[in-house]
Structures are given as C-alpha cells and as structure tokens.
Amino acid sequence: MAHDPIMQETTTTTTTTTIVMAALSTLPPPQIATITATVSALFRLHHRRLSALLSSHSLFSLSLHHLHEKSLPEKSLLIARFLLSLLHPITARMPPSTATTTLNDRGVRDRDLDSVLLLLLLCELHQHHPESLNTLSPTEWRCSLSKHVSATMLSLSGVGFSSSEILMKYIEMVARCKRFVGVMGSREWKGGREVAASVAAVVGLPAVEVEEGGKEECVVCKEEMREGRDVCELPCGHRFHWMCILPWVVKRNTCPCCRHRLPADDVYGEIERQWEVVVKMGGGYF
C-alpha cells in the first residue's frame, strides 16, 4: 500500500488529541478549572499579541523578516518552545518530582512569541484559504491575515466560549504544534535519543544518608553504599554514589534503573520528557 502522508498526519493529530483528552480526564474538577483559567489567559495573551502584530505595519514587517531569516530547523525550534509552554498547564498539575521544569520556566520571548503566532497563523490561513497567500505578495499578507483573524476573533480570544470549548481549542493547538514539530524537526525529533539532564535539575538533586542495615547497591559501580555516607537520590527514589551518577546525568537524563527522565535543557528532549508525563497521566495510551 502506498504511503499516504495526509492520512498519517490525520492519524498523528487524532492520536495526540486522544492522549491529551485522556490525561485531562484523570484530573479532579478544581485542577481542570485551574487549567481552563490558565488556557483562557494564554489565549487572551495570544490574541493581544496578534492584534498588535496585525495592526502595526512595522511590527508585522519585523516579525515577518524575523521568520524569513530563520531556517526550517530554527522555525521548528520556535514551535517546539511554544509547544512546551502549552504542555506546562497539564504537567504543572503533576507532583513536583514528576513535573519539574526548566525550559518552560523561562517561557517564550515576546519577539519569538510574535513570530511563532504569525507562523502558525500563516499555516492556518494557507490550510483554509491557500489562494490568499499564493496570489498575494508578502506586503499584502497582513490585510488578508487581519480579515481571517477578524472572522475568528472569538475563537482566538476564547471570549464567549464554555470551559469545554476552550479546552478543546487548547487540545487542538497542542496537537497542531506537536504535529508541526514532528514534521518540521524530523532530524531533531528522535524518540529515545540521549540528552543531558539540565544543570538546574542536577544541582537540585538531594543528598540523603544511607541508613543502618540498608545494604543498598549502587547499580552504576555495583558496590554497596556504606552506612552513614551521603548518596544522591533521584526523583524516582533510586540512589547512587555521587561520583557515579554525576558523569551519567551530564550525558543522559534518565535514571540508570527505571529510565525516569530528569528535566533537560534540550528542547526536544524536554518535549519528549513532558509528553511521557502526559501519556502516563492518560493511562499509558500511545
């Protein structure tokens, strides 16, 4: 059977949507309400940024120029960072040992936010009205995009929508960004690749004292951890000699025993880690 990229893209989006919906369904009503409020605030921010972008010729030109200067991998990186900011409302509801973030705490810079919103808007317009971009010059795109945004203003801002409708729009945006990252960043997006744990995560690892009669073995060096000595404990609870685990985590962000992932400074590695959290929340559906 011939490979059908459109069918594969649809299946990927549907799978992503199902996973996010399954994850959200495991949360209690108060946490759902918190996520809805966070998402509504995000949508309002995005709408304000887009409104400012499309109402200013100079700002629009600068953002478009910023996009033109970026290569395809760089555009993928923009969307990847944006995807992390979208995943944060879900993963932040998990216990700190599971959901600790580093990249997400810095958010997306205003100029990059403008660029990624413009890029996603251009992709959306091209999908629904390809003639609007194909027949116009870049200098005329602003007018066409403004008309499209005006027609979908409530959708973009989240105003007038119920909580369930806002969450569905949020889920659709997560699925769209994850699909774009998968397609545009195929070289960087390699499941299972090794990435280093973030410096902040490594520095924050606690030291614990080996208790009497523990007789616990460090799986890295295969030697027993002596009573009364400080050893490193990972968020998953597994313990190791400091001198054994440090060379490990500067090369890979997984526990040597259970493969639990520590936060990473690599954007794609961090997406993979947080996506695993979402999948586990939804019952392991893949």
Automatic annotation (TrEMBL):
The keyword Oxidoreductase does not apply. GO terms for molecular function: ubiquitin protein ligase activity; zinc ion binding. Its EC number is 2.3.2.27. Keywords: Metal-binding, Zinc, Zinc-finger. It catalyses: S-ubiquitinyl-[E2 ubiquitin-conjugating enzyme]-L-cysteine + [acceptor protein]-L-lysine = [E2 ubiquitin-conjugating enzyme]-L-cysteine + N(6)-ubiquitinyl-[acceptor protein]-L-lysine. This is RING-type E3 ubiquitin transferase. PANTHER family: E3 UBIQUITIN-PROTEIN LIGASE PRAJA, E3 UBIQUITIN-PROTEIN LIGASE SGR9, AMYLOPLASTIC. One of its GO terms (cellular component) is cytoplasm. It comes from the Eukaryota. GO terms for biological process: protein ubiquitination. CDD domains: RING-H2_PA-TM-RING. Residues 218-259 form the RING-type domain. Pfam families: zf-RING_2.
